[in-house]
Amino acid sequence: MKWLLAGASGYLGTALRVRLASDGEQVVRLVRREPATSTEFRWDPDVGEMDMAAFEDVDVAVNLGGVPVAPLPWTQSRREQILRSRVNTTSTIARGLAEQASSRALTLIQASGIARYGATSGAEPYTEQSPAAADFLAEVTTKWEAATQPAADAGVRVVIFRTSPVMGAGGGPLAPMKLAWWSGLGAVVGEGSQRMPMISLRDYLAVVHWAVTNDHASGPYNLTLPQPTTNAEFTDALANAMHRPRFLRVPASVIRTALGELAGQIVGDMYAIPKRLTEDGFVFSDPTVEDVVASALGSAGRH
C-alpha cells in the first residue's frame, strides 16, 4: 500500500511515518521546501498548488497539516493562520484526490479536533452526532471538515478524526507535563473536576490502521478515551507513574489571565466519548487514563 502524508514532520506525522516504515509500507510526503529525495513532493497549499505526481499510485492520503493551536495567544492574525493553515491544506489535498478518484479506490484520513464540541459540557457526553459549539475552534473544525467535500463528492472514502490530545513519548502534550513533574512543578489545573479528553499514541496509530483496512469506516470519529477522565485523575495517574508527589494547584483564573480564550482548552470541561469507534468494533488497547499514562511513559506508541 502506498501512503501520501501531509504534516509528516510533526509529532503525529513522525510517529505515523516511523510506524509505516516499520510495517514495510511505501510512504511519500508533501513538503513546502525543495524536495530532497524522490519520496518528497513540493506543494504550496496557501495558493492551492501541488505537484500532482505526488498522487501516483497512492492508496491513502493522511492530512495532518495545520499550525499548532497552542501555546501562542489567539490574536486576530493567529486566528487567521490557524484557520487558513487547516482549510487550505485540506482543500488542496481534497481537490487533488478528486482528480484521481476515477482511476482507483482512494481513502483520505483527515485530521480534525475534539474541540469541535466546545469546553462546556453537561450530564451527557458529546458524540459524533452532537452539534458544533459556538466558539472559535468549533468554527475552525467545521470549516476544516467541510474542506474535504471535493474528495467525498468524487467518491473518495473520507474518514475524519476528531482527535483529542495524543499522549506518547517523543513529543506532543505529554512532553512539557513530564518536564514539570520531574521539576517538582506538576499540578492540578483549576478544580480538577473538568473532563480531560485524551488518547494514547498507541491507540491513535491503531485507529489509523483500523480506518484504512476497514472499508466501512467513513465520516467523523471521536478519538478519545472510552472511559473519560478528569484533570485530577490524570494528574494522580501521572504522579503515581512518575513517582512524584502532587501538592500544587494552578487556579483557573491564572490560566485564563495568561492565555485568554485559549485557556478554555485547558480548564474547560470537555466530555466526549468515541461512540462510533466502539460501535464499529475498534478495541482500545489503552481505555483508561492509567493505561494511557503507562503506555505513553513506557514507549513511543508500540509495544
Description of the structure:
The chain is an alpha/beta fold and 303 residues long. It has one domain (2-169, 197-225, 271-286): Rossmann fold (3-Layer(aba) Sandwich). The chain has helices spanning 11-22, 76-100, 136-146, 149-153, 174-182, 201-213, 231-242, 252-259, 264-267, 275-279, 289-298, and strands at residues 2-6, 26-31, 40-44, 49-50, 60-63, 107-113, 157-163, 166-167, 187-189, 199-200, 219-223, 248-250. The strands form 3 sheets. Strands 4-3-2-1-5-6-7-11 form an 8-stranded mixed beta sheet, sandwiched between helices. Strand 5 (60-63), helix 2 (76-100) and strand 6 form a beta-alpha-beta unit. Helix 2 runs parallel beside helix 3 (136-146) and helix 7 (231-242) crosses helix 11. It is globular.
What oligomeric state is this? single chain
Q: Percent of residues in helical segments?
A: 25-40%
Rg, nearest Å: 19 Å
E-strand count = 12
Can you tell me the overall shape? Answer: globular
Structural class: alpha/beta
Output the number of helix runs.
11
